[in-house]
Write a structure and sequence with these properties.
The chain has helices at residues 13-20, 23-66, 75-84. The chain is elongated. By secondary structure, it is mostly helical. The protein is built from three helices and no strands.
């Protein structure tokens, strides 16, 4: 099996500089990440502002249509209104029973007698 050397053969000047000064690569990289995050935040804020304006439009439409003639709901008032309603709007009707069925349904069957062993 071949043994790989710990250092590559072609060590470029860029590799040597980055090994000597790691901040040359790290600091600009972090600055780019932070700047991109700040730049993208404006786009996401625009998205949320647009969504907010749509929601506000719907609530204004609902306010114009629904809240104009709204009556305050009181549970006690509703209870008394329902109790005062006449109960004469319905009358009981019997359902026709199948032929052979007695008036009050089927009588219960008696259990079979127990056999003594």
């Amino acid at each position: 099996m071949a043994v790989f050397p710990s250092r590559p053969r072609g060590d470029t000047p860029l590799n040597k500089t980055i090994k000597k000064y790691p901040g040359l690569f790290g600091v600009p990289f972090v600055l780019i990440i932070v700047a991109a995050s700040y730049g993208l935040s404006t786009f996401t804020q625009t998205r949320y502002d647009l969504h907010d304006s749509k929601v506000k439009q719907v609530t204004k439409e609902q306010e114009l249509n629904l809240d104009r003639n709204r009556k305050k709901f009181d549970i006690r008032e509703e209870y008394f209104r329902l109790n005062a309603a006449p109960d004469e709007d319905w009358e009981p009707k019997r359902i026709a029973r199948p032929k052979g069925l007695p008036e009050w349904g089927v009588p219960p069957t008696e259990p079979p007698p127990k056999k003594d062993s």
